């Protein structure tokens, strides 16, 4: 197995399952470009008995029955590559899996047989009978062979969840293991850059995360000869920029109705605190019902969106908040930019106030994506917590936001302020008063047994002065970079 950044637990589990003496059916899912295929390929290298990958409908540009025929033809070609001969191309998925059984029986020498089907959801074209055929393959043949292991992957997370993990039909309870592959953490991004001899400070790695979100595929385009700013310009704003068309490809390859998923993401990008389900329905025009439920669940399961209940409110006011850094950055700074103005756009706009605002909000999302590290820094890794945001809309008094509220089972509430700053953060007299006002306003909403601890999450630390004692805890980038 070659060297791989992170994924230690996932690698160990895959090896354990491979070395077991039982039939295994493993599903791996996660956001597109997060490294699912790379994980399987790196762990097992050349040990596949059969391997196939579905072809994206967006890439094939074929619709209707032609798409099913196209996928079957590709599957047949893979069967032939792995040794099937003397058989005609199957016309149905039942026939296709029958041919796979014949191939596996022919190649069975008693050793572990590993079948890897990548981008499985793409094979399930409308009215193709794919799920029924997969059920028949596993239930009537594969599950009884103790030397057999099936691994399937997919970026259409909602498909994996609905048809495999939460299946209530013939595949109910048939999965033996599931892996949701998460984007890299800040620590893993640092290891990735170091492994490729790309020298960046933690301050710059954090900024790369604010834009690309720890997606290995995107980080792989970085050049060691360029600065962070130059790399961002090259990826988004130069001629033939690698990621300029990624947004559209991202949704077309994952969602059955990409335009609706995009509409939701575009809406969520306009308000940092997010929207309720009711507000999403009102603003997008997507009708209430199963479709909106599937879309929202898919966006959450794909790590584009998180759900949270604002502090002090009931679950009926659950908000959907966009946290995917790539989508946020693309919609704010890349989409719609005149091609004539391409070049060093990011470099030329670093001092623009809109960039400063973006970094402040993006750092809040970094914090939301590193709750585990924040809890570790607070010494509460084993304490049950609930995370939320509290936003008080302006009325007769000022409005304000508490960036992150951590409610703890040990009767402590951490009222967190996230500040992305280029030096040690200094608390002014006015800011000291602001924190006190927020603390007084939130106090009636917490239990009488609870204590508020003002917590600063910032880049380098807190400059000590007469007002700095307002913060009981200080968490820095170094804490967020903990493994």
Please give a structural write-up:
This protein is an alpha/beta fold. It has 3 domains: 8-181, 3-Layer(aba) Sandwich (Rossmann fold); 184-369, Winged helix-like DNA-binding domain superfamily/Winged helix DNA-binding domain (Arc Repressor Mutant, subunit A); 372-480, Trna Endonuclease, Chain: A, domain 1 (3-Layer(aba) Sandwich), CATH 3.40.1350.10. It is 42% helix and 16% strand. It has helices at 8-19, 36-44, 57-60, 65-81, 93-107, 130-140, 157-165, 186-195, 202-212, 216-219, 228-236, 246-252, 258-268, 277-284, 290-301, 325-334, 345-348, 353-368, 371-378, 429-442, 477-480, and strands at residues 24-30, 50-53, 113-118, 148-154, 177-181, 275-276, 305-308, 319-322, 385-392, 400-408, 412-419, 425-426, 451-458, 462-463, 473-475. It starts with 7 loop residues before the first helix and ends with a helix.
Say how many strands there are: 15
Across the major sheet, the strand order is 2-3-4-1-5
Poorly predicted regions: none
| Cα-atom radius of gyration | 25 Å
Structural class: alpha/beta
**Total separate domains:** 3
Mean pLDDT: 90
How much of the sequence is in beta strands?
Answer: 15-25%
Biggest sheet architecture: 5 strands, parallel
